[in-house]
Specification:
With about 290 residues, this protein is of the alpha+beta class. The chain is built from eight helices and 14 strands. It is globular, with a radius of gyration of 19 Å.
């Protein structure tokens, strides 16, 4: 039995390795011509996450490998998050391209944020319209990285919300996941797992990201100098991540993040740029990894 479990885990790792090879384009894609990016929506045909056979290795490590593969397959979800004192909700796409469309529920520079690949839009509110002569949205990009490749705006926020990155960190070498138990979550039973790591290890595990983006993620994970992280992960009966909680402590601060994932692989999820006629191009901005 132990030998069969090890073989299953190896098979899952092989599948994950092949899947992750397509995740690194966000940080390393060449610069694209200016103009409005194409809207991101659910593809016409995708593999059903429920059709993915569960591996026979049901150890905590084997289950979290299965969850990582399940979330790669899902590609998208609606997220509802609380990152410290900031909160919001909306659709998130993590594969094959990055896209985010959220409405903030706590005070911020603008009510809404849209990111489609390497272009961001903020606004959707009266304050932006007053500032931009009646146009409700501000369009901008961020400076390229050291190699001249275009970066994704609000990458720190997107990486904190990305469930595949959380599971990649949970499955990183040296982690020791623990099965906490079965719990009730909304109307279903979920399995609760816990992993202890650090902000440095969490970011270092994301080898598909550029170094500058890993550095930004580490900064986003460690507000006030947090150094240790506890990941609590709740999985449904398809091994899909439905709730993520990150808590951490350090010499001068504490991390306390929570993300809920619903409508996994939802066919109606989309993230679209606003109309050009309602958009003011504000050029290039620098966005802190801590920006929410």
């Amino acid at each position: 039995m132990a030998a069969r479990q090890r073989l299953a885990a190896v098979a899952a790792v092989a599948l994950l390795a092949s899947g992750l090879s397509g995740c690194g384009g966000d940080g390393g894609a060449p610069a694209t011509p200016s103009g409005s990016p194409s809207p991101v929506g659910a593809p016409l045909s995708t593999a059903s996450p429920s059709a993915q056979a569960k591996p026979t290795d049901r150890s905590p490590h084997g289950v979290l490998l299965s969850a990582q593969l399940a979330m790669q397959t899902a590609r998208r979800a609606k997220v509802s998050y609380r990152l410290g004192s900031d909160a919001g909700s909306g659709p998130l796409f993590w594969q094959p391209k990055t896209a985010l469309q959220i409405k903030r529920s706590t005070p911020a520079e603008a009510e809404q944020l849209i990111v489609v690949d390497t272009v961001a839009y903020q606004g959707g509110d009266a304050a932006t319209a007053a500032r931009q002569g009646g146009r409700h949205w501000e369009r901008f990009t961020v400076p390229p990285d050291a190699d001249g490749h275009k970066e994704i705006p609000y990458a720190g926020l997107i990486d904190l919300l990305n469930p595949v990155e959380a599971l990649t960190a949970a499955n990183a070498e040296g982690t020791d996941p623990v099965f906490v138990g079965e719990e009730k979550f909304e109307d279903s039973t979920v399995e609760h797992y816990r992993v202890t790591t650090t902000a440095e290890k969490y970011a270092a595990a994301q080898t598909q990201l550029t170094q500058s983006r890993r550095d930004g993620l580490r900064a986003a994970l460690a507000p006030g100098g947090s150094i240790s992280l506890t990941l609590d992960l709740w999985l449904n009966d398809k091994d899909q991540l439905v709730r993520l909680q990150r808590t951490g402590s350090g010499d001068s601060g504490r991390a306390d993040d929570s993300v809920l994932y619903t409508d996994l692989a939802g066919a109606l999820l989309s993230a679209q740029a606003p109309a050009e006629t309602d958009t003011a191009d504000t050029g290039v901005r620098t966005v802190s990894p801590l920006a929410r």
